[in-house]
Specification:
Strand order of the largest sheet: 5-2-1-6
Structural class: alpha/beta
Largest sheet: 4 strands, parallel
Radius of gyration: 17 Å
Strand content: 15-25%
Number of helices: 5
Shape: globular
């Protein structure tokens, strides 16, 4: 048997629609990351970007288990002494409902040159309406 290795990315990509209504953040983020990378495809190649696009709706209604809303902290640093900032998951969700999901999926994508292009195919909408009807997304039940 020979292993088939892709040399060029595919011309056509499928788009998937995921409804985050009352779904757990981490479990759904792993599924989204696998779709974006193309890990479920038979011709998966790690150095080629052959994943699909993902449209997420109802991102403002996600769930987190345990006490993560108050205990989970997100940090950023300006690079200057004393320039660290922290924000809890609850405050970040109030500020930007799609930021929690974007940070979770972004952390699950490998840190290489493909990461920026992979994350461009992730579209997150806080409500049930989205503007991506032209891509004809297929709904996925998780």
């Amino acid at each position: 048997m020979k292993t088939r290795i892709l040399t060029t990315p595919p011309k056509e990509r499928k788009w998937h629609l995921i409804d985050m209504n009352e779904k757990v953040l981490g479990r759904t983020a792993t599924h989204i990351a696998d779709l974006l990378r193309g890990k479920g495809k038979a011709d998966f190649t790690p150095h080629i970007d052959n994943g699909d696009g993902v449209i997420v709706i109802n991102a403002s209604t996600i769930r987190m288990t345990g006490e993560k809303w108050s205990q989970k902290k997100y940090y950023s640093h300006s690079g200057y002494p004393g320039g660290i900032k922290e924000i809890s998951a609850e405050n970040l969700h109030e500020k930007d409902p799609s930021a929690l999901l974007h940070k979770a999926v972004s952390g699950m994508i490998p840190k290489n040159k493909l990461k920026k292009d992979i994350l461009k195919r992730l579209r997150i909408f806080p409500s049930a309406e989205h503007t991506m009807q032209a891509q004809k997304p297929e709904p996925i039940a998780l």
